Amino acid sequence: MPTRTESSQELAESLRVAHGIAVWTLGGSASVRHPDTDSGTYMGQVIGETKYHMIQRVSAQSAIAHPKELLNNVPLVGQAVRIHYSNEQGSVRDWQVRHRNRGLER
Fold this sequence. Notes:
1 helix, six-stranded mixed sheet, alpha+beta
């Protein structure tokens, strides 16, 4: 997030770029939401980064713009992570996608 010397215009630009990353990656109907910083949990791949945000894919058409200043560590683009918020602080952990075995084994 911007310091007092940085403008709200920079924050707005960061969110605009985050939306552009989501649209570029997820398609034209992609949406970008803010995280629930009181108790939200988000799992998925980090698809981009702006000056103030990490953009995480959470479904086929939606992403979360996580404020970097609230995260205990900043994940890398491409990394699959679980981000859990409690009391305005985000805890970042590696996350592995679990695949279901749909076939029959013989």
